[in-house]
Design goal:
The complex is a heterodimer.
Chain A lengths: L7 H9 L5 H19 L2 E4 L1 H10 L10 E5 L26 H8 L3 E6 L33 H8 L5 E6 L5 H7 L2 E4 L19 E6 L2 H11 L29 E5 L9 H16 L3 E5 L7 H16 L18 H12 L2 H13 L6 H21 L5 E5 L15 H5 L6 H6 L3 E8 L5 E7 L5 H13 L11
Parallel strand pairs in A: 2-3, 2-4, 7-8, 7-9
Antiparallel strand pairs in A: 1-3, 4-6, 5-6, 5-10, 9-11, 10-11
Helix pairs in contact in A: 2-3, 5-6, 7-15, 9-11, 9-12
Chain B lengths: L6 E12 L38 H13 L3 E2 L2 E2 L2 E4 L9 E4 L6 E2 L2 E3 L13 H4 L3 E11 L3 E4 L4 E4 L6 E7 L6 H17 L12 E11 L9 E4 L4 H20 L7 E6 L4 E7 L9 E2 L6 E2 L4 H6 L6 H12 L3 H9 L1 H12 L4 H15 L11 H11 L5 H13 L4 H7 L8 H14 L1 H8 L6 H11 L6 H13 L1
Parallel strand pairs in B: 13-14
Antiparallel strand pairs in B: 1-11, 1-12, 2-6, 3-17, 4-5, 4-16, 6-8, 7-8, 8-11, 9-10, 12-13, 14-15
The chains are: A alpha/beta, B alpha+beta.
Amino acid sequence: MSLAHESIASLRRRLAAKEIHSRDIVQDLLQQIDAREKTIHAYTHLDREAALAAAEKSDPSLPLGGIPIAIKDNLNVLGDPCTCASKILEGYKAPYDATAIARLRQAGAVFLGRTNMDEFAMGSSTENSALGITRNPWDSTRIPGGSSGGSAAAVGGRIALAALGSDTGGSIRQPAALCGCVGLKPTYGRISRYGLVAFASSLDQIGPLTRTVEDSALLLSALAGHDPRDNTTDLRKPESFLAKPDGSVKGLRVGIPKEYFIPGMDTETEAAVRQSAEWFKKNGATLVDVSLPHTPSAIAVYYILATAEASANLARFDGVRYGRRATDPRDVLDLYHRTRSEGFGPEVKRRIILGTFVLSAGYTDAYYRQAQKVRGLIRQDFENAFASCDLLLTPTSPEPAFKLGDRTQDPLKMYLADVFTISVNLAGNPAVSLPCGFTKSNLPIGLQLIGPRFGEEKILQAGHSYEQAHDWHQRLPPA
Amino acid sequence: MSSSSKWEAVIGLEVHVQVRTRTKMFCGCVNQYGDAQNTHLCPVCLGLPGSLPVPNEEAIRKTILSGLMLGCQIAPVARFDRKNYFYPDMPKNYQISQYDDPLCAGGGVTLDPFLFPKEIQETEEAKAGRKIRLVRIHLEEDVAKSFHFEDRSGIDFNRAGTPLMEIVSEADLRTPGEAFSFLGSLRQILLAGNVSDADMEKGQMRCDVNVSVRPFGQKEYGTKVELKNLNSISGVRRALTYEIARQIAACEKGEAIAHETRRWDDEAGATFTMRTKEKAHDYRYFPEPDLLPVRTDQGLLESARTLVPELPSGLQTRLIRDFGVTPYQASVLTADRILCGYYEKAAAGTKNKALVANWILNDFLSTQPDPTTTPVRPEYFGELADLVAGGAINSAQAKKVFTELMAHPTSPKDLVKKLGLEQISDTSALSAYCDEAIAANPRSVEDYKAGKMNAINALKGFVMKKSQGKANPAQVDEILRTKLSS
């Protein structure tokens, strides 16, 4: 069997035993990439020599020594491109390492390549990339989800062992669900955002996409913890997020929020998720009906707050200091206008304009400030729910992967893809998506476990127990 | 009554002050003025993608300190906001500033009469000692500096991210002289707290002025004009003098004042329209999501309190009361804390403290402009003052010693010897001089014996002259009296 099919945990054991060398893993992955990347197009940048050279020098005694990891193209890796899948960052080379990257480096990881995404992480299908679309490894006529679609397709397609993504409204979990892998959005403040190109600063979190829950916990341990460069990181020390590798779910109180099972959602998805809930019940957990009453407002709140922050975060791309610059500008205004008109894609422009609008004098009270208030209510919903349960169980996405091009003309319909993931970002809680079945047409279905703030251990523990009892994560996509 | 005296100006100032800190406001780059361009840079102050700000506690503490010195209320929880606008000297195209919850609110600056322009220090306006209220003080980051060449522009990012306080006054000022004293008085306070060097000519203190005119007695404000490009405190005064006259002249002609920003041209001595303000700029402020709220009530405020220095007004009072200096001298000493420290040391050992102040402020400064490097030890002044007070030398001789002291700094006692000014205290020598004086001035002797006690002065003068001023006057007096009474 190709080493590309194994989990990090298992490869770690074999590396430590000196059965294999990191170069063997990289070579197997490159072989898989040769076979599949042409179809999937998960990567925006791949430096084979550099990956092999890093593997050669890797130290297997380190926690992630010699483990190759793919990186979403909105994280700064010293010397690498960091395009955010945008024309505006054409030719830009990162002059520093993101804290998450520095921590992986310190843990001995090998960087495999940069993965595709929706431009500046704005989208749910990776179709908003200026560098070409990515295809779902399970069905190449379908989208991989987004915005971390390249990372999810690479891991789900077995052309990466693991990848980093970023999740602002579901951008790790939704593509993970649609590509059949495990995607974790940690608690806001758990992982430093320093070096992650900001989309919406109060919502963005970096997280791992992996084959297994155990691998997710392994990466989280390496990534988590306070960073003096990020004022919003939490001071608590990273822990072992999988303290009891074979723990049971007995006595666990699993909340089922009624707002997450809605008319119109895909029936196969609903059935698979309800069946996973039954598994928890059968194994000693209690199912608790809970309500998150402000859920219907979440998408509106999100598209006000996220775009408001984005309108400021993306203002720096002006052609003055780096990235793309319009040629022969008449004056500085012309430089701004043309650089940004030429450099940004339509979805990014739409969100910048929306965000600028909701902050404008005369509108900010009705939109931005109002949305901030409702965000507080959504956060309160979760706190109330966690008074009666340990974690929440929901679908990750209302439907499996849809067809390429299906939603590109209808942004509002596209926004609905994140209906089950967005509230979690607004509240700041952690959530993991893991495979919980397949549709009749062999498309992966994702189960979302949401934890209380800084309750990653709870959801990873429960997810791991579920995963141990099932083999969804071992299924291979069609060749 | 001249027509202009029917009009009153209303002036408000927005003063930006660079806070002197080791590092910049939101990153670890050195906060230093005047180095080679673009040498103090990092991903944060360049606004590179992915970088994040981390607040500088020293800058926050110094802003709180400024608030404490100016009598502001300090917010228990302050917040940073983003102020959005595009400009090439602004790396992120938004400035991290404070909007709804600034660090300091209220407070005021009392106008120091001696910090009015010299020629009007004696006027009622200056002596009034008015207190100008402040609206607020908030903390933000400075922008980079643009340079314009013939066909292109360049940007030096060294300044980008320098901690910058914005101190906003109420529209309490009424005259250019008051604005002049406000800036000077504010600067004295900031210097005392070691918050900033606040040198306008170096851009460490920058000032935007809002000014309007209205007839005396009218409550409503006139149309406000904003003045920019003011590069010195006296420039602010000149610009205001011009602008107020311009507005009054326009009003008297019945012309409307345009709501606009005008640029002060120091060479032309006039203001010119920069842009009209038909549409107010929408900065789209919103809370900075990258920064947590700043809690000042968990140690920051307390640590700032320990830094509050003796304020200029208190120091002036103490100098006048305890050192006997004039109010003017007190104000000069207060303006220069280093010189003042030197003076306090110099005057410490002597009762003749006012004399030391005269020496230091007049003669010393002209030869030894820098008290930190001068080889003249401050104790020498006290020693010299005591020599005069004790009658060992007279003031004419003291002047000689002083000149020598500046040229060859060493103990004044030694200098007195070196210059041959030490007094003759040898009784037999003095006795001989006195005998000579009595013999040469029979008339004075007669007068003295007849009860005209002042007549002895002529005899003393004779002795002093004979001895070339070296005779110890006290001893001479005693010897003469003994001889005359026998």
